[in-house]
Amino acid sequence: MADLSVHLPALQVVVPLVAAPLCLLAGRAGLAWIIAFAASAAATATAAALAYITIHNGTISYHMGGWPPPWGIEYVVDTANAVILLLVSAIATVVLAFSPASVAKEIRPGSQHLFYCMFVLCLTGLLGIAVTGDAFNVFVFLEISSLSSYALIAMGGQRKALTAAFQYLIMGTIGATFFLIGVGLLYIMTGTLNMADMQARIAGIQDSRTVVAAFAFITVGLALKAALFPLHLWLPNAYAFAPSAVSAFIAATATKVSLYVLLRFTFTIFGAKFAFLNLPLNWVLLVPAVIAMFAGSLSAIFQRDVKRMLAYSSVAQIGYITLAISLASSAGLSAALIHIFNHGLMKAALFCAMGCIFYRIGTTRIDDMAGLGRQMPWTMTAIVIGGLSLLGVPLTAGFISKWYLVQAALQADLWWLVILIALSSMLALVYIWRLVEAMYFKAPPPGLEGAREAPLSMLLPTLFLAGANIYFGLDTRLPVAMAENAATLLLRGQM
Amino acid sequence: MTGATLIILALGLPLLAALSIWMVGNHPNQREAVTLSTAVALLLVVLAILPLQLAGLPVRLALGAPVPGLSIAFAVEPLGMIFACVASFLWIVNSVFSIGYMRGNDEPRQTRFYVCFAIAIAATIGLAFAENLFTLFICYEALTLSTYPLVAHHKNDEARQAGRTYLGILLGSSVVLLLPAIIATWVLTGSVTFTPGGIMAGKVGPVIGGILLLLYLYGIGKAALMPMHRWLPAAMVAPTPVSALLHAVAVVKAGVFTVVKVTVYIFGLDYLRELAMADVALYLAGFTILMASIIALRQDNLKRRLAYSTVSQLSYVIMAALILSPLSTMGAALHIAVHAFGKITLFMAAGAIYTAAHKTKVSELAGIGRRMPWTMGAFAVGAISMIGLPPAAGFLSKWYMLLGAFEAEQFFAVLVIVLSTLLNAAYFLPIIYAAFLKPEVANGHGHDHGEAPLPIVLALVTTGAGTILLFLFPGPALELATRLVG
Predict the structure, then answer these.
(1) From the CA of A316, how many Å to the nearest CA of chain B?
(2) Other beta carbons within 10 Å of B92
(3) pTM metric for this prediction
(4) Separation CA A268–CA A195 (nearest Å)
(5) What is the per-residue DSSP string for A19-50?
(6) CA distance B88 to B67
(7) In chain B, where are the structural domains located?
(8) Is the pLDDT of residue B246 over 90?
(9) pLDDT score, position A183
(10) Across the interface, which of A393, A436, A476 has its CB nearest the CB of B67?
């Protein structure tokens, strides 16, 4: 075991990468699901082990194929990406546990094993982005995750899923291209692709216009992938028309990983001084973030489809995260990472609950969900908990996020931000209340009176995620410790 | 037993009862036995804390902190002690009444009723003993959520509509106003712990302090300061034991309790005296007292009349707290207990009338006192307490409020108390007069009836007697109230 544990960073990616073609070869949905689930469970175990090691022993550096950096590809795991790896792989596992019934209902029988294949491939991509210490490698994994998620979204039942996937493909490709151009420019200037090496070499040439251009390309590209307002237009349709399990997985993880890469490039490679003092990244992030908080929530209020509503809510929540990043302080980065983690939990719970509802009534329109509170009480419990967490009510994970966010804003002496955060949370109350009102206080529409509670195989993972929202509202040690440690690492020797 | 153990018991017993009630739900007798025995046990536990509290020993329990600085902790102080005693005693009485009422009226979903009731009691005890605003807020929300199924008990459109108003106003006001106020308090003072003398002095300017005061007063929707009172009349659709729970045992009391806690332990009386907004808030409370009384005067539905009476009486507590003299603060604390006894008597009498005679309107009550002498006798005692006449306990709290108002030279408050006493008399005395002295009107579908079932009568006579006993022997309550103001 001893020598195996050395290879954990590689296994993190290799296990799901190998599992993906195996799913394809399996040819049957059941077998493919077993392979996918086993792979993601293994990935979760790996991520947990990596998190444990990084907390106790510090940063891990792994040399792919034994080639030392900067010539070979290096995988670097510290607390900042360990927490992302843990989030992504754990959510993938829970969502896969949730998915068999959902997939059987929503995906054509012939292509269900393809669904699992794509799902694991997407997981591979997201984990790879987080684990690697090589800038070009990030692009490769970004493309793996993106291409597979286009395919996954296109598997949605409605024809609109195809246009949604196409829209995402166009925007995502632009984002990835921008990112690649940025990385290319950096390669020209530094002659290296290894992040640590790049960091060392970039320090002397910061004034170069090429480096500034590279930074701009990378930031915009990643903002596109992270759906930062106003580059979020691909997101609502993608989340709304994707199969339920895909919405749950992507909403909880994909944009978060892009935000992580933004953190990594901004703080580790370029350095906070370059980004925030030489260049006005704080305003570039802060203004869209605040607009996102309000515009996202306001749009959410007027949606008739709950999945779209949650998608717009994500736009607003991404605003909170980028707002925290824009503060460029230790407290701000902690808040950002904590919210990345907690928001993943909320959205996974809520989208899984939507999957349960879709499974029973075949729609997620708010009007059709009237009166479901009595027919599907447990699903609705999960929605209420997720909603409260989204609002930031004490005892839920969302409260912890808001708390650290407010603290960070105050440390930066930005009083008005606290008020804006409070006001935008009120908007969340409006759309959550709309949902509660429909579920509990309206009579079911004709034809849908007989809906029953979702099957246990879907319900249990959903409730597990809802429970996690409460658990991490009480016991905050894991996310807070990792986030604070990561913030220190990201800001090491800067500002 | 140590204080911490006692607090664990006080919180744990009702929760355990909720679980047990749910498990034996199909056996009504065992189910009710669980409720009653837990209620008695809870009262004993609370009474066991009393000597510790009176001896000045710290009774504290810390459960941990989700984030540094915000802990979930409980600590007993005099006001909480009064509230916990009242709530746990009235739980017993209300349970006896509930059993009579729910069985007498063949109500559906009784198990759910008793489960939610027990959870609500646990939340109430937690709220009474909360050491800081954060813990209090959590218990406050738990109380709202656990009482919501009770309000919407009948599950018809009317109940659902009432439930919507109930949840909407209480949850909305607490999340939109109270929570930001708590966070702002933490940000400004670095603490949310209830501290004798308050925590705001010297840290919060008068303008921000004034805004915070309004945020608290309106954010604590359970205190029903107008226009936040609408949930209370709406919730009247619930079965009568629920009304008793809302009006006497837990919910509205939790509201005014929180108001007094915040004024005494967060703002501090000295700090509030410097605050111009405190006077404005006093006028708002005075306005609510009078306005609610006037509305009550015009209600023919007995329970609605009682509901508006509650709105008015709650603002007594708020106003008394804002008079800002130690004596009136004592009056506020006493009024929490006094009003609880009086109002539960009145509600149980209304329930008794409904169960025995199926009457809900004030205009139908002529001559009913001769058929239901015990019920209407207790009703009269409750009404006298509401008006504030001896020998009912209502006199006691009003006395202290008036003393305090004179001491602080708040003549507006004096005027409000005098006017509202007249109004109270105007809407209660005609009921008593009609019940005992007017002849019964034969209205065709009237039928012979006597008293309500024994448990109901027993319960309301107990609280009626309690109202008088509290006047005759106010010792412990006064002692605790004195300690509250130091």
Answers:
(1) 18
(2) 19
(3) 0.87
(4) 8
(5) HHHHHHHH-SHHHHHHHHHHHHHHHHHHHHHH
(6) 32
(7) 3-484
(8) no
(9) 95
(10) A476
